[in-house]
Amino acid sequence: MNTQEKNKAQSRRTLAEIDRGNFDIMDEVSVPGATFDFPGGPKVDITGFKGFCAMFRAAFPDFVHDINDMVAEGEKVVRIGVFRGTHRGEFMGVPASGKRVEMAYIGVDTFRDGKLIAVQGSPDMLGLMRQIGAPAMAA
């Protein structure tokens, strides 16, 4: 298996573990200084990312990531997919609605020697917030 295929397998495995609620997988698959960057927030380290995952798990306890497409080039893996879950807990100030949601996302995982050094995500947070009934956002 070449490097790109190994990195893609690692991306799949990591998301599957996160979907199971095993956020400690990040300690195993990431270098200590790994960064996680999502629009609207600061870059965070592994601890911050695990907190981000826990926040999502509390609000969407059945969440899963479906990967629709994955492309690897060099040390980067690009994931295109959909996050699905049921809004059963407060999320960003919006009380649980009980609604099933789908949020499109693109993620870019950067590896070095088989370990994550950076993750950049671009989830459709506006679409998610609309689905759970968040008040209209100002332009």
The unreliable regions are none
Separation of the first and last Cα atoms: 48 Å
Oligomeric form: single chain
Mean pLDDT: 94
> Strand percentage, roughly?
35-45%
Could you spell the SSE succession in H and E letters? HHEHEEEEH
Largest sheet entry: 5 strands, mixed
Tell me the overall shape.
Answer: globular
Tell me the radius of gyration. Answer: 15 Å
What is the third-level CATH name, the topology?
Answer: Nuclear Transport Factor 2, Chain: A
Number of helices: 4
CATH class assignment: Alpha Beta
Number of domains: 1
Helix content class: 25-40%
Named at the architecture level, the CATH assignment is: Roll
- Record the strand order, biggest sheet: 1-5-4-3-2
Number of strands: 5
Structural class: alpha+beta
Short note summarizing the structure:
This protein has a five-stranded mixed sheet. The protein starts with a helix and ends in an 8-residue tail after the last helix.
Provide tags for this entry.
31% helix; 5-stranded mixed β-sheet; alpha+beta; Nuclear Transport Factor 2, Chain: A; 139 residues
Description:
With 139 residues, this protein is an alpha+beta fold. The protein has a single domain (3-131), classed as Nuclear Transport Factor 2, Chain: A (Roll). It is 31% helix and 37% strand. It contains 4 helices and 5 strands; from the N terminus they run ααβαββββα. It has helices at residues 3-19, 25-29, 46-59, 125-131, and strands spanning 30-37, 64-73, 76-86, 100-112, 115-123. Strand 2 and strand 3 form a beta hairpin. The longest helix is centred in the N-terminal third of the chain and has 17 residues, at 3-19. It starts with a helix and ends in an 8-residue tail after the last helix. The model has no long low-confidence stretch (mean pLDDT 94).
